[in-house]
Amino acid sequence: MKEYNISHPVIKPITPGSAVSLSGLFFNRVKATPDKIAYHYYDLVSKTWKNLTWSEAYK
């Protein structure tokens, strides 16, 4: 089983009032942490684990 490093610096939480909607939550996260990993997924073609940052997910 893969182990994850979860000792990340504290990021100011996005509150429901500041996000307003699910899409607002996404856009706030892109703005706050564009270079942080948003998704970690297994690519069946290359048979490797890959990461997608928030800014890549936005694009």
Plain-language structure description:
This protein has three helices and two strands; from the N terminus they run ααββα. The chain has 59 residues and is of the alpha+beta class. The chain has a domain at 35-59. Strands 1-2 form a two-stranded antiparallel sheet. Strand 1 (37-43) and strand 2 form a beta hairpin. The radius of gyration is 14 Å and the shape is elongated.
State the main characteristics.
3 helices, 34% helix, alpha+beta, single chain, 59 residues, 22% strand
How would you summarize this macromolecular structure in one to three sentences?
By secondary structure, the chain is α+β, with helices and mostly antiparallel strands.
Structural class: alpha+beta
Order of helices and strands: HHEEH
Question: Whole-number average pLDDT?
Answer: 86
Helix content: 25-40%
Q: Count of DSSP E strands?
A: 2
Query: Termini, distance in Å?
Result: 31 Å
Strand order of the largest sheet: 1-2
Radius of gyration: 14 Å
Rough shape?
A: elongated
Largest sheet: 2 strands, antiparallel
Q: Strand percentage, roughly? A: 15-25%
> Which ranges are low-confidence, i.e. pLDDT below 50, for 5 or more consecutive residues?
none
Number of helices: 3
